Amino acid sequence: MPRSLRDLDLPGRRLFLRVDFNVPLEAGGTRVASDTRIRASLPSIRHALERDAGLILASHLGRPKGKPDPHLSLRPVGERLAELLGRPVAMASDCVGPAVPAVAPGQVVLLENLRFHPEEEKNDDQFSRQLASLCDVYGNDAFGTAHRAHASTVGMVAHLAQAGMGFLMEKELTYLSMALSSPARPYVGILGGAKVSDKIEVITNLLKVADRLLIGGGMAYTFLKARGIEVGRSLVEDDKLELAARLLNQAGDRIELPLDHVVAAELKPDAESRVVDGAAEGIPEGWMGLDIGPRTVAAYAAEIARAKMILWNGPLGVFEMAPFARGTIELARAVAASGATSIVGGGDSEKALQTAGVADRITHISTGGGASLEFLGGRTLPGVAALEK
């Protein structure tokens, strides 16, 4: 693990803290719609200010395509951060050059959107040097961007003597590492989402450590078809059938697939839907599986109730449409009620927790969808590796 923010020499020094303030904005880009990610970095921000560091905060927001976009300015983020901190936050009109004001100990400056410069995503060395010239010490608290080798996450670190991870990054790495190497048992993984191809590495890695893998979402139908079960018009990756069969053979009885399904002929909120038994009749021709059925909910909930650790990534159905959201909502409630150490990642999974009203009963909700998948898949995250040098 990299050094922590608490190990860095901060008093009187300028700390560049890479945060993930890629938050949703209300129409027109004038106000923050959800401040969850801002709040997530408050412990690191407060730690630095309590130690009298001059704090330079940097983030991207949206996809401005390498040029300034007033609708993607971080100014509304700075205003909300000032409210949360109860102290002024100076807003720079750029992230490099003379537009960045000097920061004194105990002050906070928020740089303008890093991705207004194409050099950020290109990890340009000259741009990295410009960012590094702003500070004495570097910290990264943006786990959600740790899988990207950008100037603010990798390039500038090479030009600074001291670097470490913020408390949010530390929390993410602690829990995700636990999920791969030292889980409490029984250990249950719940994997949903559309495609097997998105989670091949995660499935392979979890089969090394998990006692049970509960599969749902669109990816379940590739596994079911690989078992010779009729899946109608359900989403299937035909080029991954051989892989799915191999994973099922490797897993034995540790992979559980849906027993029944909520099906519809059309993917519409008002489409006629019904429940079919997956094993006995499969999914009829012309129909598609869009959620797990009640027998599957009960079977999966029973496994969850026995678990001491749970890792969940991805919805179990087409969660965006109310008729096909029940399976995901019910499992969210089961995870919250289990008493297990629970780690949840993925935006839709978090939405399910919020909808079910149980987010405050989850041990850790990851802020990094892509980063958490790559980490769980065994990949090295460039933003973490840069801190370990």
Describe it for me?
The structure is a single chain. Helix content is 32%, strand content 16%. It is an alpha/beta fold. The mean pLDDT is 94. It folds into two domains: 5-166, Rossmann fold (3-Layer(aba) Sandwich), CATH 3.40.50.1260; 174-376, Rossmann fold (3-Layer(aba) Sandwich), CATH 3.40.50.
Distance from N terminus to C terminus (CA atoms, Å) equals 11 Å
CATH topology of the largest domain: the name is Rossmann fold
Average pLDDT taken over every residue:
94
Count of strand segments: 15
- Which regions contain 5 or more consecutive residues with pLDDT less than 50? none
CATH superfamily placement of the largest domain: Phosphoglycerate kinase, N-terminal domain
Report the biggest beta sheet as strand number plus sense, adding barrel if it closes. Answer: 6 strands, parallel
- Any guess at the CATH architecture of the largest domain? 3-Layer(aba) Sandwich
Number of domains: 2
Which sequence of strands runs across the widest sheet? 3-4-2-1-5-6
Strand content of the residues, in percent? Answer: 15-25%
Question: Which outline best applies?
Answer: elongated
**In which range does the helix fraction lie?**
25-40%
* Number of helices, counting only DSSP H or I runs of 4 residues or more: 14
Order of helices and strands: EHHEHEEHHEEHEHEHHEEEEHEHEHEHH
- SSE class: alpha/beta
Rg, Å, rounded: 23 Å
The level-1 CATH class of the largest domain: Alpha Beta
